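subagent[fold] <- orchestrator: predict structure for attached chain, return tokens only, no commentary.
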Amino acid sequence: MKTRFFLAIAIMTLFAAVASAQSAIIYGSLTLPRGAFGEKNIYRNAFSSDYGNQGGAQTGFNIGVKYMKPFPDSEFSWFLSADFFYNGLDSDLKDEIGRYTQDATQQIIRETIQDNSFVFDYFELKFPHYYNIPLMAGINCSLFNLSKDCSFWMECGLGANFRKISDLKETVEYNDEHYESTCTFDETFTMAYQASAGLKFQDRIMIGVGYYNLGADVINAKIISNSTGDWKKQKTNEKLEISMLTVRLGLIF
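subagent[fold] -> orchestrator:
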């Protein structure tokens, strides 16, 4: 219900912005995780520890659209932006979590069947990905011209972020048995803000760098096993904060 409400508000707001905007920017960015979102300590990772507050995210990408309308007789403009951010998990961290999970699960089965030589016939761990969709409003300012065709701009924005984490899935096969457990994560909404600056060329091309903080929240998860059908809620005790730097290239229409 919250997701549908957020999307409905986002669509209506974008339609209103399109109707009143005088220019639009379509852009893409390279995203570099910062702070805890990019830390890769397995013992503090949000997916391997109930007390984890680190995301282990790798470099990702962002695509977005921004609608702008200038204030009369001013270098300032208001804007409304909608973005999509994608980040996967760091490959080295995935290998480390995979080995740790396989060894731990294997040891539990060894103790259960009292056979220290037991090994899996097949083991696979599919890792989650981060998806973030922030909707922001803010102020953009063209501060000064570096030349006839080049100007320097700055902006800041505030809004809300929708966070989605895809499923974490474990598959195990041994003795002709097939077991699966799937961990699904709750969608969340958080406050978000950003600050960016860069250069604009001939009012057609924009480049820049920015800092995005997409908010912090705990991770609630539901774990379902095909062997027992049981499920439970698991809640991290610390919040995962999502922040990143962006390197942006955009086209102005």
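orchestrator: received. Logging for downstream: The domain at 2-252 is CATH 2.40.160 (Porin). Residues 91-113 form the longest helix (23 residues).
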